Amino acid sequence: MMALMRAFNACYKTEERRGVIKTRLIATGLTLNLAFVLFLAVILLIVGQLVLDYILSHMPEFRWLNLDDYTIYMIFMLRFVVIFIVFFLAIATIYYFGPTIHYDWRFFSLGSLIATFGILGVSYGFSFYITNFGSYNKVYGSIGVLIALMIWVQLVTTVLLFGYEINASIHEAKSKAALWQARKKNA
Predict the structure, then answer these.
(1) What percent of the chain has pLDDT over 70?
(2) Over the Cα atoms of the chain, what is R_g?
(3) Whole-number Å distance between alpha carbons of 164 and 92
């Protein structure tokens, strides 16, 4: 997380102005935030599926609802909406608290939205690759899981930096437009 925070500061060519302890505490908090989000996503995807299947098949209290297939499908899809919102909030938090400077950014931004879609897409694509084509365990043995995890983290970090660059570019474009408008008024 510290490297990501340094990269965010490099986007604006600024130095870290916060103290070492404050910076480390922020990085630790953001890391715990991301770990919680990943844990919640895994719980919602895996355990959520099992819980919904169990409720629908073993609990007669819910049979009186007469849920059709479409409603059951929408309940299953609600998990993905919740995962999307949780990822979006986590990324927005990282983008807000990670860099030294905040300017006039809103908590919700286009870069956060694109990074959220990007991370979900990269995760799905990487999972598809590992499932169908990757043979890390055959080639590297049990360390193959760690190698795959490191590759996934690298891809996610790249998407996070891309989303932050979008936010920085939008801010720079707005600043230049405001400067241009001010020059036109004074001329």
Answers:
(1) 88
(2) 21
(3) 10
User: Where are the alpha helices (H) located in the chain, listed in sequence order?
Assistant: 2-11, 20-42, 48-58, 69-97, 110-132, 136-140, 144-186
Instruction: Tell me the per-residue pLDDT of 104-130, one tens digit each, with 9 for 90 and over.
Output: 667 788 999 999 999 989 988 888 777
What integer pLDDT is reported at residue 15 of this predicted model?
A: 84
CA dihedral sign, ordered 155, 158, 162, 163: positive
**In sequence order, what are the residues at sequence separation of 6 or more whose Cβ sits closer than 8 angstroms to the Cβ of residue 92?**
107, 108, 109, 112
Number of compact structural domains in the chain = 1
CB 155 within 8 A of CB 126: yes
pTM of the entire predicted model: 0.78
Residue range of the domain that includes 115:
2-186
